[in-house]
Amino acid sequence: MKFGIALKLSLLLALAGALAAGLTGYYAFEASRTLLVNAAKDRLLTSTLVLARRVALAREEIERDLVLVAEHPAARALLQGPGTPSQQQTLQDLMVLMLQSQPSYFQVRLIAADQHGMERVRVDRAPRGPMVVADDDLQEKGHFDYVSQALRLGPDQTYMSRVAINHERGSHLGVDKPSLQLARPVRDAQGRTLGVAVINIDLNGTFELLAKDMPESIQLYFANHEGDILIHPEPAKTFGFDRGRRIFIQDEFAATGPVVRGDNNVAVFESHEGAHANQPVVAAFMSQPLKVSSPETRLTLGLTQPLQAVLADSNRLGQTVLQIVLALCALSLLLALWMGRALTRPINAISHAARMVASGLPAGALPVERRDEIGDLARAFRDMRLQIGEQISELRDNQDELEHLAQHDPLTGLANRRKFQERLDHALAQARRVPQTVSVLFIDLDRFKPINDHHGHDVGDVVLQTVARRLKGVLREVDTVARIGGDEFVALLGAPATQEQLEAIARKLLTLVSEPMVVDKLQLDLGCSIGIASYPDHASTATDLLAAADHAMYQAKTAGRNTFRFFDATPPAA
Ligand SMILES: Nc1nc2c(ncn2[C@@H]2O[C@H](COP(=O)(O)OP(=O)(O)OP(=O)(O)O)[C@@H](O)[C@H]2O)c(=O)[nH]1
């Protein structure tokens, strides 16, 4: 296939098809990606809100447990005096039960308001289960905020400490673990504050429980009211302030700044910055003010999911789209090539037909039956070819006519001087080879001028035509009769003739021309003089032979007309 219009058109169509398929695929892929990211953001935000709700419910549950301890008569009794062993046992049993039923509790305590905040009952979580701390190991805790601040609380109020690493001595499993304390005052019947009930919470354990049904790809973040990171997928980034180096959530995710400050309640975003440059994430963060008395005015909670995990479906879709696009490209290329061939074939047939016509050969089949532009072109070409054919045959006719006119006398239809000359040249050339004789008879009408003068030119013409017919009647097919002047005729004999035969022909001619002629009811009297010359006796060339015959004709005229003479080069006697 040539790089012609059809191929260019095919390539253009294929390109357009591929471009359309590619763009559709690209925008479908982009749209799906945006949809997936937005859906992931919505999911993360919902999960964050659910988690925050669970945290609030967990806190309320802890508060209820605190109320159980703080309102327990045994607790009041133990704080108002030394209490009985059974009161102490009752409270210890209650605390043990709490630790058994709440895996996120590190410690439950009853602390007195006096004696510098002396612990009165304390149950710790030990490796083998809840452990009642012996009286001798009980400590003074009055200097801790969760004691001093809780003692100042009004009725039905709970205090929550800052979330920090627990460095309190003797707290067993809770030692050096992220934890916080919730505390509630214990009052007597008159409303005097006797002490506080305190529950020490395992931060990580609590969140592990709350977030245990989250998909693995989702990461949990938790920060205090200033943005210090408390829970992070990388433990090294948590509780930086405990090691003298603060690490803020808003430094890792700039978009969380307003949430930490409380300007916004939620922030949902995509992060490609800093540590997430290589592995971008989709994130949802929220913060809410605490409903308890606490130095932590608000806490920030967030969930992230790697963009890669979010877009996993999109990538699968992208591969499918790519396969479809490639298939469509291949299809459009095949269609374009097929169309190109379909266009090229009839056009090639027409151009082939044009070349055949140009070479004078039959055009062959043309797609004239088609109803489209190519059919129009084929029909126009066929009409043009027919028109050209007609014109060529007309030209040929004209050419034949011109040829005839160029070689014949228009009045009589006899050969003219030119044709006669050709025949004579040819006859002489042949005669030279054989060798043989060639004879020419020069015939000039006698007394023709008076006919013309008296009866007009038209009558003269009829006479000339009649003479021509008579001459042809006498001579044979092989002979050539020509009119070479007004009333001058010549005859070239097609075969060698003896003198006797020549004389016989001449006499026959004289007789026939002299026969009476009636034109327009006019009886006309006519005759002719004939000069005869032969090759090679009288001349060797055509010109000389004709001149010799002419000369002999004059001799016949001179001899009195209506006779014939053979060429005689002897000059007449003076
Ligand atoms: N009607 C007619 N006359 C022609 C034509 N061509 C020449 N003539 C005339 O033919 C005549 C020829 O002249 P001449 O040969 O001298 O006349 P003539 O009477 O035959 O004379 P002689 O040969 O001496 O007998 C002239 O009068 C020309 O005008 C022609 O085509 N038609």
UniProtKB/TrEMBL annotation:
The keyword Zinc-finger does not apply. It holds the Pfam family HAMP. Residues 436-569 form the GGDEF domain. GO terms for molecular function: diguanylate cyclase activity. This is Diguanylate cyclase domain-containing protein. PROSITE patterns: GGDEF, HAMP. Its EC number is 2.7.7.65. Residues 341-393 form the HAMP domain. It comes from the Bacteria. Keywords: Nucleotidyltransferase, Transferase. InterPro entries: DGC-Regulatory_Protein, GGDEF_dom, HAMP_dom, Nucleotide_cyclase, Rev_trsase/Diguanyl_cyclase, Sensor-like_sf, VP0354-like_sensor_dom. The keyword Disulfide bond does not apply. The lineage of its organism: Bacteria, Pseudomonadati, Pseudomonadota, Betaproteobacteria, Burkholderiales.
